[in-house]
Design brief:
By secondary structure, this protein is of the alpha/beta class. The chain has one domain: Rossmann fold. The protein has eleven helices and twelve strands. The strands form two sheets. A ten-stranded mixed β-sheet has the order 3-4-5-7-6-8-9-10-12-11, with helices on both faces. Strands 1-2 form a two-stranded antiparallel sheet. Helix 7 links the parallel strand 8 and strand 9. Helix 6 packs across helix 7. The radius of gyration is 20 Å and the shape is globular. It starts with a strand and ends with a helix.
Length: about 425
C-alpha cells in the first residue's frame, strides 16, 4: 500500500467540465492516514483504534480545535422543561422546548427545540444540529420561544434579532418528521456568542473563568461541538428518542462543528457535513477558496492559537481534513457541497472522502475512491460514505435533506 495518497488538483481539471469548478493548478500530496508517526503502517482496525486514531486526535486537539473540557466540566448541568405540545404541525409532532443549564443560577444555558413524530412504534432516530439565527427563525411555528432580552444581551454587539421563520428553509421539519425522525436544534450563540471577546463570554467564561489560555486552548468550534454532546446527554433521557441513532448535522461553520463533534463523541451514530469548506471537509493543501490564513484572520476565535501557524503553510500541516473525516470511521459520514459555493471548495470536500476511504476499508466497508468528482445533483453512496453537490449557493435546501434522510434510512432504521 502506498504511504502517500496523491491527489493532484490538476487531475481534477481533466475530469470536471463544469465552469463553477475551474481552479488553478496546485499539485499536492496528502499524508496517509494509515501511516503512524513512527513510520509504521496500520494493518488492522485494532491498531487504528488503539494507536493511530489517538495520534490523530491528539494532533487535531493540539494544533487545530483545541482541547475540549470533560463532559462534566460545567458546574451544574440540569434540564428544565419550558414548553410542550402534542399538536405541532397540525398534530404531526410533539414540540418540546427544554433549557439545558450549565450552572446553578441558570445564567449560562441553551434552549433545545425538539420535534418528535407522534406516529411511531418505540423510540425514533433523530437529527441534532445547531442553528444560526435562533430556534424561532427555523420555523413559522408561533409557539417557538423567542430569545430573552437577557440572552440577547450576551450576543455580539449590535446583534439583530431575525424574524420568525427567517431560516425556515434550512430546517425541513415536516419532511423529516414525516419520514419518522425527530429533530432537535439550538442557537449556537446560546453556547458561545460568535464574536471574539477574548473568550470571556459564553461557556468559555463559565468553565475557564480567568484561567490563562495557551496555544492549545479550545476555540468556539470546540465549544459548539462540546454543547452538541451535552444535548446528546439530554436526548439519552428522552424515552421517545433512540439516542443510539442520532445523526449530528451542521452547515458551514456549524458543518465544521458537526465533524468535530462526530470525532470527539463516538456516540453520534452518523455525521453530516453541509458546505463545511475550509477547516471542515475541504482539503487544506489545495489552497482553493477560503484558506487557513483567511479563516484565522476573519474568525480568530474559532480554533486554537496553534492553528494560526499553518496560514500559508498548509503543506506543513502534519494532517489534513481527510483525517478529520477518518475520525468518524466506521460510522456513516455524508459530505455535501453546493455548485456555486467555490469559497468552500466542493472538489476539496469530495477529495476528503477519497482520502479517508482506506480507513473505512480497515473496518470492512467500501469507501468513495473514484477521483472523478460527481456531477451536480448526482448523489454517490459507497459503503458508509455519502456525497452530493447540490445546484446553487451556500445554503441548506430540501434537496439536501432528501439525501440526508435517504442516507440515514440505510443506517438508522
Amino acid at each position: 500500500m502506498n504511504t502517500l495518497l496523491k491527489l493532484a488538483a490538476t487531475a481534477a481539471l481533466s475530469v470536471i467540465a463544469l465552469s463553477s469548478y475551474a481552479q488553478p493548478s496546485n499539485p499536492y500530496e496528502l499524508p496517509d492516514p494509515l501511516k503512524m508517526e513512527d513510520g509504521r503502517i496500520v494493518k488492522n482496525k485494532r491498531q487504528w483504534i488503539n494507536e493511530r486514531r489517538p495520534e490523530l486526535m491528539e494532533m487535531l486537539r493540539s494544533q487545530m480545535f483545541g482541547r475540549e473540557p470533560a463532559a462534566d466540566a460545567a458546574p451544574d448541568i440540569h434540564y428544565t422543561l419550558l414548553e410542550e405540545s402534542k399538536d405541532a404541525f397540525g398534530g404531526l409532532a410533539t414540540r418540546r422546548q427544554v433549557k439545558i443549564s450549565f450552572d446553578k443560577d441558570e445564567n449560562y444555558y441553551l434552549v433545545l427545540l425538539m420535534y418528535i413524530p407522534n406516529k411511531h412504534n418505540g423510540p425514533v432516530p433523530a437529527f441534532l444540529g445547531p442553528n444560526f439565527k435562533g430556534n424561532h427563525a427555523t420555523t413559522d411555528d408561533p409557539e417557538v420561544l423567542m430569545p430573552t432580552k437577557e440572552k440577547l444581551a450576551t450576543f455580539a454587539p449590535g446583534y439583530k434579532v431575525e424574524p420568525r421563520d427567517a431560516n425556515g428553509h434550512r430546517w425541513e421539519y415536516e419532511y423529516i418528521l414525516s419520514h419518522g425522525y425527530a429533530v432537535a436544534t439550538f442557537c449556537y450563540n446560546d453556547v458561545d456568542p460568535d464574536f471574539h471577546d477574548g473568550f470571556h463570554n459564553g461557556i468559555h467564561g463559565l468553565i475557564d473563568g480567568d484561567k490563562p489560555r495557551n496555544g492549545e486552548s479550545w476555540g468556539s468550534i470546540s465549544a459548539w461541538a462540546w454543547s452538541l454532546s451535552r444535548c446528546l446527554d439530554y436526548l439519552e433521557t428522552v424515552k421517545e428518542i433512540d439516542a443510539k441513532k442520532v445523526a449530528v448535522i451542521g452547515h458551514s461553520r456549524l458543518g465544521k462543528t458537526s465533524l468535530w463533534a462526530g470525532a470527539t463523541d463516538q456516540r453520534f451514530a452518523l455525521v453530516i457535513s453541509n458546505d463545511s469548506g475550509c477547516s471542515g471537509a475541504a482539503i487544506a493543501r489545495r489552497k482553493f477558496g477560503e484558506t487557513v490564513a483567511a479563516i484565522n484572520k476573519s474568525f480568530p476565535h474559532w480554533f486554537c492559537d496553534n492553528y494560526k501557524a499553518y496560514g500559508g503553510r498548509e503543506e506543513m500541516m502534519p494532517w489534513d481534513q481527510h483525517e478529520l473525516i477518518a475520525m468518524i470511521a466506521p460510522r456513516p459520514v455524508y459530505v455535501a457541497s453546493a455548485s456555486e459555493d467555490s469559497w468552500a471548495d466542493p472538489v476539496g470536500e469530495y477529495f476528503s472522502l477519497v482520502g479517508a476511504a482506506s480507513v473505512y476499508n480497515l473496518f470492512g466497508y467500501d469507501g468513495i475512491t473514484d477521483r472523478n468528482v460527481p456531477g451536480i445533483e448526482h448523489p454517490v453512496v459507497v459503503g458508509r460514505m455519502g456525497h452530493h453537490i447540490r445546484k446553487g449557493e451556500h445554503n441548506v435546501r430540501l434537496y439536501d435533506w432528501e439525501n440526508y434522510v435517504a442516507f440515514a434510512d440505510r443506517f438508522l432504521k
